[in-house]
Design brief:
The protein is of the alpha/beta class. Helices cover 36% and strands 12% of the residues. It has helices spanning 3-12, 15-23, 57-66, 94-107, 124-129, 147-155, 169-178, 184-201; strands spanning 70-72, 75-78, 81-82, 84-90, 113-119, 136-137, 220-221, 237-238.
Length: 240
Protein backbone atom coordinates (compact mmCIF):
# COMPACT_ATOMS: atom_id res chain seq x y z
CA UNK A 1 0.00 0.00 0.00
CA UNK A 2 2.98 2.33 0.46
CA UNK A 3 4.08 4.09 -2.77
CA UNK A 4 7.59 4.49 -1.36
CA UNK A 5 7.93 0.71 -1.17
CA UNK A 6 6.58 0.34 -4.70
CA UNK A 7 9.06 2.97 -5.92
CA UNK A 8 11.91 1.16 -4.13
CA UNK A 9 11.01 -2.13 -5.80
CA UNK A 10 10.83 -0.38 -9.19
CA UNK A 11 14.31 1.13 -8.85
CA UNK A 12 15.74 -2.16 -7.57
CA UNK A 13 14.68 -4.03 -10.70
CA UNK A 14 17.26 -3.87 -13.49
CA UNK A 15 14.77 -3.71 -16.34
CA UNK A 16 17.47 -3.44 -19.01
CA UNK A 17 19.02 -6.69 -17.76
CA UNK A 18 15.65 -8.44 -17.97
CA UNK A 19 15.03 -7.05 -21.46
CA UNK A 20 18.44 -8.22 -22.66
CA UNK A 21 17.93 -11.69 -21.14
CA UNK A 22 14.50 -12.22 -22.66
CA UNK A 23 14.64 -10.22 -25.92
CA UNK A 24 18.39 -9.84 -26.46
CA UNK A 25 18.76 -13.09 -28.44
CA UNK A 26 16.26 -11.67 -30.99
CA UNK A 27 17.25 -7.98 -30.74
CA UNK A 28 20.74 -7.30 -29.30
CA UNK A 29 19.99 -3.56 -29.12
CA UNK A 30 16.91 -3.97 -26.92
CA UNK A 31 16.40 -1.62 -23.97
CA UNK A 32 13.69 -1.45 -21.35
CA UNK A 33 10.37 0.25 -22.08
CA UNK A 34 9.88 3.57 -20.29
CA UNK A 35 6.29 4.51 -21.14
CA UNK A 36 3.16 2.79 -19.83
CA UNK A 37 0.87 4.04 -22.60
CA UNK A 38 2.70 4.38 -25.91
CA UNK A 39 4.84 1.67 -27.48
CA UNK A 40 8.15 2.53 -29.10
CA UNK A 41 7.67 3.76 -32.65
CA UNK A 42 4.60 5.86 -31.88
CA UNK A 43 5.04 9.64 -32.05
CA UNK A 44 4.04 10.26 -28.44
CA UNK A 45 6.46 7.71 -26.97
CA UNK A 46 8.85 9.31 -24.47
CA UNK A 47 10.81 8.24 -21.41
CA UNK A 48 8.71 9.58 -18.55
CA UNK A 49 10.20 7.40 -15.82
CA UNK A 50 12.81 9.85 -14.54
CA UNK A 51 14.93 8.53 -11.66
CA UNK A 52 12.42 5.72 -11.06
CA UNK A 53 13.33 4.20 -14.41
CA UNK A 54 17.00 3.81 -13.53
CA UNK A 55 18.40 0.73 -11.82
CA UNK A 56 19.60 2.24 -8.54
CA UNK A 57 19.95 0.10 -5.40
CA UNK A 58 21.19 3.09 -3.39
CA UNK A 59 17.99 5.02 -4.15
CA UNK A 60 15.91 1.90 -3.41
CA UNK A 61 17.62 1.61 0.00
CA UNK A 62 16.90 5.26 0.73
CA UNK A 63 13.23 4.90 -0.22
CA UNK A 64 12.80 1.86 2.05
CA UNK A 65 14.55 3.71 4.89
CA UNK A 66 12.20 6.66 4.34
CA UNK A 67 9.22 4.28 4.46
CA UNK A 68 10.38 3.05 7.87
CA UNK A 69 11.74 -0.35 6.85
CA UNK A 70 15.02 -0.85 8.71
CA UNK A 71 17.66 -3.47 7.97
CA UNK A 72 17.96 -5.97 10.84
CA UNK A 73 20.17 -9.04 10.33
CA UNK A 74 19.96 -8.56 6.56
CA UNK A 75 16.15 -8.33 6.48
CA UNK A 76 13.87 -5.33 6.11
CA UNK A 77 11.70 -4.97 9.19
CA UNK A 78 9.23 -2.49 10.64
CA UNK A 79 8.43 -3.27 14.25
CA UNK A 80 7.70 -7.00 14.34
CA UNK A 81 6.88 -7.24 10.64
CA UNK A 82 9.34 -8.49 8.00
CA UNK A 83 9.08 -7.25 4.42
CA UNK A 84 8.40 -10.52 2.60
CA UNK A 85 6.48 -10.55 -0.67
CA UNK A 86 5.06 -13.04 -3.16
CA UNK A 87 5.28 -12.82 -6.93
CA UNK A 88 2.42 -14.85 -8.41
CA UNK A 89 2.99 -16.39 -11.84
CA UNK A 90 1.13 -18.96 -13.95
CA UNK A 91 2.52 -22.48 -14.29
CA UNK A 92 4.07 -23.41 -17.61
CA UNK A 93 5.05 -19.89 -18.73
CA UNK A 94 8.83 -20.00 -19.11
CA UNK A 95 9.30 -16.25 -19.57
CA UNK A 96 7.40 -15.46 -16.36
CA UNK A 97 9.49 -17.99 -14.45
CA UNK A 98 12.74 -16.52 -15.76
CA UNK A 99 11.66 -12.95 -15.01
CA UNK A 100 10.49 -13.89 -11.51
CA UNK A 101 13.85 -15.52 -10.70
CA UNK A 102 15.73 -12.45 -11.90
CA UNK A 103 13.52 -10.08 -9.87
CA UNK A 104 13.89 -12.32 -6.81
CA UNK A 105 17.69 -12.04 -7.01
CA UNK A 106 17.50 -8.27 -7.60
CA UNK A 107 15.41 -7.63 -4.47
CA UNK A 108 17.57 -9.83 -2.23
CA UNK A 109 20.32 -7.18 -1.69
CA UNK A 110 17.63 -4.85 -0.34
CA UNK A 111 16.70 -7.36 2.37
CA UNK A 112 13.40 -8.23 0.69
CA UNK A 113 12.45 -11.90 0.55
CA UNK A 114 10.48 -12.57 -2.62
CA UNK A 115 8.70 -15.92 -2.78
CA UNK A 116 7.80 -17.19 -6.25
CA UNK A 117 4.21 -18.43 -6.07
CA UNK A 118 3.44 -20.68 -9.06
CA UNK A 119 -0.30 -21.18 -9.54
CA UNK A 120 -2.36 -23.09 -12.14
CA UNK A 121 -2.50 -21.22 -15.43
CA UNK A 122 -6.20 -21.80 -16.11
CA UNK A 123 -7.59 -19.79 -13.14
CA UNK A 124 -4.60 -17.38 -13.04
CA UNK A 125 -6.65 -14.28 -13.90
CA UNK A 126 -9.99 -15.33 -12.42
CA UNK A 127 -8.66 -16.47 -9.04
CA UNK A 128 -5.59 -14.29 -8.56
CA UNK A 129 -5.25 -11.23 -10.81
CA UNK A 130 -8.81 -9.92 -11.16
CA UNK A 131 -9.63 -10.16 -7.41
CA UNK A 132 -6.21 -8.68 -6.53
CA UNK A 133 -4.99 -11.83 -4.80
CA UNK A 134 -1.27 -11.06 -5.27
CA UNK A 135 1.58 -8.86 -4.02
CA UNK A 136 3.40 -8.77 -7.34
CA UNK A 137 2.76 -10.51 -10.63
CA UNK A 138 3.87 -10.74 -14.26
CA UNK A 139 1.81 -10.72 -17.44
CA UNK A 140 1.73 -9.06 -20.84
CA UNK A 141 -0.32 -6.14 -22.12
CA UNK A 142 -0.80 -5.93 -25.88
CA UNK A 143 -0.25 -2.55 -27.54
CA UNK A 144 -3.20 -1.14 -29.48
CA UNK A 145 -3.68 1.46 -32.23
CA UNK A 146 -5.81 3.47 -29.73
CA UNK A 147 -3.45 3.60 -26.73
CA UNK A 148 -5.00 6.50 -24.80
CA UNK A 149 -8.58 5.23 -24.64
CA UNK A 150 -7.54 1.63 -24.00
CA UNK A 151 -5.00 2.56 -21.28
CA UNK A 152 -7.59 4.38 -19.18
CA UNK A 153 -9.07 1.04 -18.07
CA UNK A 154 -5.64 -0.03 -16.78
CA UNK A 155 -4.63 3.12 -14.90
CA UNK A 156 -7.83 4.91 -13.81
CA UNK A 157 -8.85 4.35 -10.19
CA UNK A 158 -12.16 2.85 -11.33
CA UNK A 159 -10.65 1.07 -14.32
CA UNK A 160 -11.80 -2.51 -14.76
CA UNK A 161 -8.24 -3.64 -15.58
CA UNK A 162 -6.49 -1.73 -12.80
CA UNK A 163 -5.91 -4.96 -10.89
CA UNK A 164 -3.53 -3.46 -8.32
CA UNK A 165 -6.09 -0.74 -7.48
CA UNK A 166 -3.31 1.88 -7.66
CA UNK A 167 -4.10 5.32 -9.05
CA UNK A 168 -4.99 8.91 -8.25
CA UNK A 169 -7.52 11.61 -9.04
CA UNK A 170 -4.78 13.43 -10.97
CA UNK A 171 -4.22 10.45 -13.28
CA UNK A 172 -7.98 10.10 -13.79
CA UNK A 173 -8.28 13.78 -14.78
CA UNK A 174 -5.44 13.57 -17.30
CA UNK A 175 -7.11 10.60 -19.02
CA UNK A 176 -10.54 12.22 -18.91
CA UNK A 177 -9.19 15.40 -20.53
CA UNK A 178 -7.09 13.50 -23.08
CA UNK A 179 -10.04 11.40 -24.18
CA UNK A 180 -12.24 14.47 -24.64
CA UNK A 181 -9.94 16.59 -26.79
CA UNK A 182 -9.46 16.37 -30.55
CA UNK A 183 -6.07 18.12 -30.57
CA UNK A 184 -3.41 15.40 -31.07
CA UNK A 185 -0.60 17.46 -29.50
CA UNK A 186 -2.71 18.30 -26.47
CA UNK A 187 -3.74 14.66 -26.05
CA UNK A 188 -0.11 13.64 -26.19
CA UNK A 189 0.87 16.27 -23.62
CA UNK A 190 -1.91 15.29 -21.21
CA UNK A 191 -1.09 11.58 -21.34
CA UNK A 192 2.62 12.29 -20.95
CA UNK A 193 1.76 13.97 -17.63
CA UNK A 194 -0.44 10.99 -16.72
CA UNK A 195 2.44 8.61 -17.38
CA UNK A 196 4.76 10.63 -15.12
CA UNK A 197 2.18 10.28 -12.33
CA UNK A 198 1.83 6.54 -13.03
CA UNK A 199 5.58 6.13 -12.50
CA UNK A 200 5.44 8.15 -9.27
CA UNK A 201 2.56 6.03 -8.00
CA UNK A 202 4.58 2.87 -8.58
CA UNK A 203 1.66 1.40 -10.47
CA UNK A 204 3.78 -1.06 -12.48
CA UNK A 205 7.37 -1.52 -13.60
CA UNK A 206 6.89 -2.05 -17.31
CA UNK A 207 9.75 -4.25 -18.56
CA UNK A 208 10.17 -4.37 -22.32
CA UNK A 209 8.44 -4.30 -25.67
CA UNK A 210 8.37 -7.55 -27.59
CA UNK A 211 9.49 -7.08 -31.20
CA UNK A 212 7.42 -8.13 -34.17
CA UNK A 213 9.74 -10.46 -36.08
CA UNK A 214 8.77 -11.81 -39.48
CA UNK A 215 10.72 -14.15 -41.75
CA UNK A 216 10.59 -13.00 -45.37
CA UNK A 217 11.93 -14.44 -48.61
CA UNK A 218 14.90 -12.29 -49.68
CA UNK A 219 13.34 -11.87 -53.12
CA UNK A 220 10.20 -10.23 -51.70
CA UNK A 221 9.99 -6.45 -51.46
CA UNK A 222 8.07 -4.19 -49.05
CA UNK A 223 6.78 -6.93 -46.78
CA UNK A 224 7.70 -7.70 -43.15
CA UNK A 225 6.92 -6.45 -39.66
CA UNK A 226 4.53 -3.52 -40.03
CA UNK A 227 3.48 -2.85 -36.44
CA UNK A 228 0.35 -0.69 -36.45
CA UNK A 229 0.79 0.53 -40.05
CA UNK A 230 -1.21 -0.80 -42.98
CA UNK A 231 0.32 -2.89 -45.75
CA UNK A 232 0.25 -1.31 -49.20
CA UNK A 233 -0.25 -4.45 -51.24
CA UNK A 234 0.29 -2.52 -54.49
CA UNK A 235 3.97 -2.23 -53.51
CA UNK A 236 4.48 -5.81 -52.35
CA UNK A 237 5.93 -8.32 -54.77
CA UNK A 238 8.93 -10.28 -56.00
CA UNK A 239 12.02 -8.33 -57.02
CA UNK A 240 12.73 -8.61 -60.76
Amino acid sequence: KDPLVRQAITTAIDRDAIAKALIGPMDPKVTSMDNHIFVKGLGCYANNAGALGEYNLQLADQLLDKAGWEVVAGKRTKGTETLALKITIPAGVATSAQEALMIQSMLKPLGIDLVIDVVPSQPFFDDYIIPGNFDMTLFTWIGTPLPISSAKSIFATDGGQNYGKIGSAKIDKYFEDANSTLDPKKRCSLVTEADKEIWKAGHSAILYQRPNIVGVDSKLANIGAFGFTSIDWTKVGFVK
